[in-house]
Design goal:
The chain has 421 residues and is α+β, with helices and mostly antiparallel strands. Helices cover 20% and strands 33% of the residues. It has three domains: 59-146, Nuclear Transport Factor 2, Chain: A (Roll), CATH 3.10.450.350; 149-256 and 389-421, Nuclear Transport Factor 2, Chain: A (Roll); 267-380, Distorted Sandwich (Glucose Permease (Domain IIA)). The chain is built from seven helices and 20 strands. The longest helix is centred in the C-terminal third of the chain and has 21 residues, at 398-418.
Amino acid sequence: MAQTSSPLQYFPATHLLGAAITLILILVALLWPTPDDRLTTTLTVAIPDNAEAAAEEETVQWHSDKVQSGDSLSTLFSRNSLSAVDVIELASQAPKEAIRLYPGQELRWTTNWDNRIQTLEIPISPLAKHVLSRSEKGTFDYQLAEREADHVPRFASAEINNSLFLDGDRAGVPEQVLIELAAIFGWDIDFAMDIRKGDSFSLIYDEIYLDGEKIGNGDIKIARFVNQGREITAVRYEDDQGNANYYTPEGLSMRKEFLRNPIDFFRISSRFNLRRKHPIYNTIRAHKGTDYAAPTGTPVKAVGDGRITWASRKGTYGNLIIIKHNNRYETRYAHLNSFHRSTKVGRYVKQGQVIGYVGSTGAATGPHLHYEFRVDGVFRDSLTFKFPKAKSIASSEKDDFLKKANAMLMWLHGYQVSALP
């Protein structure tokens, strides 16, 4: 059989290869899209704001130093080789309270290439800090940066077999909360004389959390104390002016015009007695006050609002503070070791404000507070005197209070029932 020959066999191989390459180039040119025909795909990735902030935080180098006793902004900057010019600028542009330093604060800052402050953070608490940032104009902008904490209610109760603080601690109640509890009921219960075995208390208070970590304790919302069979309940209420106080469920103030006792931790070593034998002079001398034995340095509080008329040494009284409470009442605090730095003659003090510290100055056999209470110039026994109450719930807020108080009572009752064995 005769074989059919191909015309391509008459062309040299190099010619055929060149023709093939030329053909491919023509096809590519014909099929390649023009600029107008091309499709452009853009991939957009959304970055959360906090991720951007975190990335920026990582790229900025922060420095820090803890404030030591006696430090000022100037000494702290000098210790860290920061510019004295920045101290002057911050002092002239920032609020005074923002740059007032206290031992233990940890300051943080960033600087530029020239070691000049760009951002300075001064903490106030875990929830707030002063922030000073350099603007594009070169001056410092001020901001009070605050965070919101979580307030988680906690129920606690205990029966008293030893003392409020020992049994309360065993029930897991923080000491700060127990002190507040004693202050709330301090007008009605003498925690040195009135507490009996079998007394009990129950309360709801806030625990404060930040980022899932407990940072402190908040206010007591409602509390009930059973003392010698007498049940007393206190409800916290904040009025439309933001003032918070404690009231009975009926709206009567728990707060009286005077505290029953001027110190928190004590034992009564000598009561009001007009025929007491004096321990130093060994003669019958009227003891026209109450003596509270307590360690030297124990804080002494003003029992009521008033004006200081004496704050100095006075004979056998030793270091003495006298406070006038309107025209009828006067209180005296004697044998003090020292005065509080804010205690000055002529100054107005609030109930519960610390005015001095227990000592043994004057005619005293040991550290104690001698406390006198006078009504219309006459010595009275502060442990038995019936103190007038302070103002109760305003009539304009009575309905709102009763609604909230009833809700609180149901809340406390629910916790008490669920805690039963």
